[in-house]
């Protein structure tokens, strides 16, 4: 998120402009767990390949989760659908978008 700030001092007529960029790490919350489907609401555009890395232990089933897709959440953010992996082929399915920083402008 780029923010612009203008500070004016009336007596000295000095103006200072500051520009900076804010980087936000991706975050998720559990929307629903109806096995074998798990739905997470995450920061807009964030789809963790392994949701166990962004949520507290115990919030999700301990089995590996396979990312199935993402849709915009009606209340903001991104809804990510995962399924509990039942065999090794599912565990090796293509991963979600890379984990890391999410930028807002």
TrEMBL record:
It comes from Deinococcus koreensis. The lineage of its organism: Bacteria, Thermotogati, Deinococcota, Deinococci, Deinococcales. This is Uncharacterized protein. It comes from the Bacteria.
